[in-house]
Design brief:
The chain is built from 11 helices and no strands. By secondary structure, it is mainly alpha-helical. The longest helix is centred in the middle third of the chain and has 21 residues, at about 115-135. The structure holds fe (ii) ion. Fe (ii) ion (FE2) binds near residues 35 and 61.
């Protein structure tokens, strides 16, 4: 049985996480809000602490806007510096680094449910945003599980998204892909306005 968390809960950082998003995330903000919402829903499914899981989702790419696509520095010192300003525990940094398995996997393995969920859902929230944005309505309410799956099979669409990583939900979470997409889509629909994917076009840039 996989542990839900390594040891610490850090749900008390939720207000601070919101402030950090306002201060540091612009282009990445919708992805971070979406991932936070999805992680909260996954915590409820798997019995984790919803606030803690949400914080991990909200902050996992907090450094991305300032890195200019420099993957080498992702989850490195710039992120550590920001997290220190809110006195985040080491566990949060570890949980965040674990989503970047190709670089940090040896030090921070996918050994808790929180980490496994974040690893799989990270690519999916980004993909669902891409699927929504190519629709004429740009309204996530119009997106269904089958539309997401169809686009996943289209290798030319959002080619940078690692489909394999999303599909690992079946092995890592024992969750069928359809259910995983449905839960994530539902969670994202609940924050549609915040992520600019609702029928209210005035919220879009
Ligand atoms: Fe991400």
């Amino acid at each position: 049985m996989t542990l839900l968390l390594e040891h610490a809960s850090y749900g008390h950082l939720l207000p601070a996480a919101h402030s950090l998003l306002t201060a540091h995330a612009d282009k990445t903000k919708a992805h971070l809000i979406a991932t936070g919402a999805a992680m909260e829903a996954l915590a409820k499914k798997f019995g984790g602490d919803p606030a803690t899981w949400k914080v991990a989702g909200m902050l996992h790419d907090l450094d991305w806007d300032q890195l200019d696509k420099d993957y080498e520095r992702h989850c490195g010192e710039p992120l550590e510096v920001i997290l220190k300003t809110i006195e985040a525990p080491q566990e949060l940094l570890g949980d965040i680094r674990a989503h970047y398995q190709s670089k940090y996997g040896a030090e921070y393995p996918l050994d808790t449910m929180l980490r496994k969920c974040l690893f799989c859902v990270d690519e999916l929230t980004g993909f669902i945003i891409a699927v929504t944005l190519v629709r004429p309505s740009k309204n996530i309410a119009d997106v269904e599980v089958k539309s997401v799956k169809k686009k996943m099979k289209d290798k030319g669409f959002a080619a940078q998204v690692d489909r394999e990583q999303i599909a690992q939900c079946e092995e890592l979470l024992s969750m069928p892909l359809d259910d995983f997409i449905a839960l994530t889509l539902e969670a994202m629909k609940a924050v549609a306005k915040e992520i600019g994917l609702s029928s209210d076009v005035s919220l879009r840039e």
